[in-house]
Amino acid sequence: MGVKRRDGVAILRLNRPERLNAINESLAGALRDACAAIARDPEARVVVLTGAGRAFCSGIDLRGFGPDVPGPEAPAIERLRFQEAMAALPEALRALPQPVVAAVNGVAVGGGLALCLAADIRICAASARFGNAAIRIGLSGAEMGMSYHLPRVVGTSVAADWMLTGRLVGAEEALRTGLVSAVHPDEDLSERAWETAAMIASHSPLGVQLTKRTLQLNADAPSLAAAVEVENRNQVITHATAEAAEARAAWSAR
User: Fold this and answer.
1) Distance in angstroms (rounded) separating the CA atoms of residues 238 and 224
2) Mean pLDDT on 238-251
3) If I label 17, which of 53, 58, 177, 238 is the partner at 20 to 30 A Cα–Cα?
4) How far apart are CA 115 and CA 119, in angstroms?
5) Following CA atoms 139, 145, 151, 153 in sequence, which dihedral angle do they give, to the nearest 10 degrees?
6) CB of 125 within 8 A of CB of 182?
């Protein structure tokens, strides 16, 4: 796991390219630690999540996760604890106060798709492929927050198609269904991700973080009135900040 910082942008890179960045015990721990560190970093305004080499993340490493993975004969409570630990990874990404831009290079399947879905913005390379892998190995296709995130992003019918068939979805279908907001040539992906993150980082940190929180909260708002109540309070809070005053002055001077 590598983390680089550049002008307010933390670039978080999954780094097991020889295994297509499959999640093993070490990578899972490094990702948890990196998220905890970034959450406390006042200099990190935006996070770009991507993979080293030719893949974003090929899911959990079934062949070499590490000694602590329980087998099917293990007590149910041990297998539950393992599943909870895996599900905590996308939860940690979603809980970051900073917006997360997922730059998907190559495959994002299984746990990789779950990490991608936990991001706030998703863009991908033309070579990207997405898929729900668990259903293809005899498990439930609903794991690591996927049954929550995916229907909200692409709709229930499309989510059911992908989760029940386990088929691979290409970049153009991902764009058409709204899983990603843009598709770029492979060689341009890193720069486009940086440009998106830098644009966000140029705005008021408080305004950006409250926007992220409001989007998350209001995705499940029980009513328009409840959603507007949160929006109104956030506008009152941000209106009095120095950053807002500077932004208004700069806008008026155009």
Assistant:
1) 21
2) 80
3) 177
4) 7
5) -130
6) no
